[in-house]
Amino acid sequence: MDFDTFKARLLDEGLCEVGFSRVDDTVPPDLARYHYAVTLMFRLSDAVVDEIDGAPTYAYFQHYRAANALLDRCALLACEMLRRDGARAYPIAASQSVHDRGDKYTGIYQHKSAAVAAGLGWIGKSALFVSPVYGPRVRLATVLTDRELPVTGQPMESRCGDCRRCVDACPAGAVKGVNYVRGMAREDIFDAEKCSAHMKKAYGHIGRGAVCGLCMRSCPYGQNG
Ligand code: B12
Ligand code: SF4
Ligand code: SF4
Fold first, then answer.
1. What is the Å distance from ligand 2's center to 80 Cα?
2. Which pLDDT does position 225 carry in this prediction?
3. CA separation, residue 112 to residues 41, 54, 136, 186 (Å)
4. C-alpha dihedral over 110, 57, 191, 171, to 10 degrees?
5. What residues does each domain of the chain span?
6. CB 209 within 8 A of CB 203
7. How far is 144 from 99, CA to CA, in rounded Å?
8. Out of 33, 120, 196, 209, which residue is the most buried by the measure of CB atoms under 10 Å away?
9. How far, in Å, CA of 220 to CA of 57, rounded?
């Protein structure tokens, strides 16, 4: 397979980055046959994200859904290109929580783990993935595959430094202000229950409890206008 053509096809669909990584040991046993991951990254609109001021907006909720739809479509396309090339490929939805893995707040596989392993950015104090170019203003999807892929980079060191903007921006007190170091549990840096409860209580009428994004909006990385 020509990986440059594969990437170019996906970038043409509207993605801002495509990365390749080796799958880490957090992959669930039923998916252990897949040793490589394709990271699909979509850059959110600054025009929409910049409007988030103290609360999410209806426009952001719709943008979130549209971005998820594009990412899921790109994941399908990537799977099909890999299948036609004789590989097996498994799409991880952009935004799907599952409730059969002992953690109420988890997905089938973590997009952020794959994006970091592909060398595309780091985990910020916010617990969000932060790209040095786009900041946390991106949405992600992942395709797992048994095709050997040329890994695109190494995990980046955190560039958060002394910044605490996301800590101060979070109305739920969910962001603890700790620099993420590989191997830390999510709970060491972020309280998922507090975040989720706040989104449901305060913004249920806007985004059915699925969006907030004040931590994402506050990050100095990716603020271009
Ligand atoms: C369940 C879920 C939630 C839950 C729990 C969040 C959480 N952090 O776990 C709740 C409802 C609280 C939530 C809230 C939000 N979410 Co959410 N959510 C998910 C979902 C569906 C699964 C997350 C999951 O499995 N969590 C389990 C924990 C253990 O993993 P994790 O925190 O995702 O990632 C950890 C690992 O990646 C580890 N790690 C990092 N590097 C490496 C490398 C290796 C090798 C290893 C082993 C591990 C590792 O560190 C990370 C930090 O703890 C993902 C989609 C997905 N499948 O990934 C979206 C996702 C994480 N959400 C996203 C977003 C944007 C949000 C919100 C801003 C809401 C909104 N859209 O407005 C808030 C932000 C909260 C925050 N500050 O993190 C984006 C994040 C994009 C980004 N730039 O990082 C994702 C990736 C969806 C997407 N398609 O882009 N979410
Ligand atoms: S999404 Fe909102 S409530 Fe959740 S961590 Fe970010 S700022 Fe806090
Ligand atoms: S707002 Fe500051 S501390 Fe939070 S993720 Fe961005 S750079 Fe890191």
1. 35
2. 46
3. 11, 25, 11, 12
4. 160
5. 3-156
6. yes
7. 20
8. 120
9. 20
Which is it for strands 89-92 and 138-145: parallel, antiparallel or unpaired? antiparallel
What whole-number distance in Å separates Cα of residue 167 and Cα of residue 128? 12
In Å, what is the CA distance from 52 to each residue of 47, 56, 106, 212? 10, 5, 25, 8
Residue of 52, 112, 175 with the most ligand 2 atoms within 8 Å of its CB, for mutation? 175
**C-alpha closest to that of 215 among 182, 181, 171:** 171
Mean confidence (pLDDT) of the chain:
96
Residue with tokens 């989104």: 199
Composition of the chain by helix, strand, coil, percent to 5: 35, 15, 50
Ligand 2: residue of 198, 203, 206 to mutate (most ligand atoms within 8 A of CB) is 198
Contact 67/60 with Cβ under 8 angstroms?
A: no
**pTM of the full structure:** 0.97
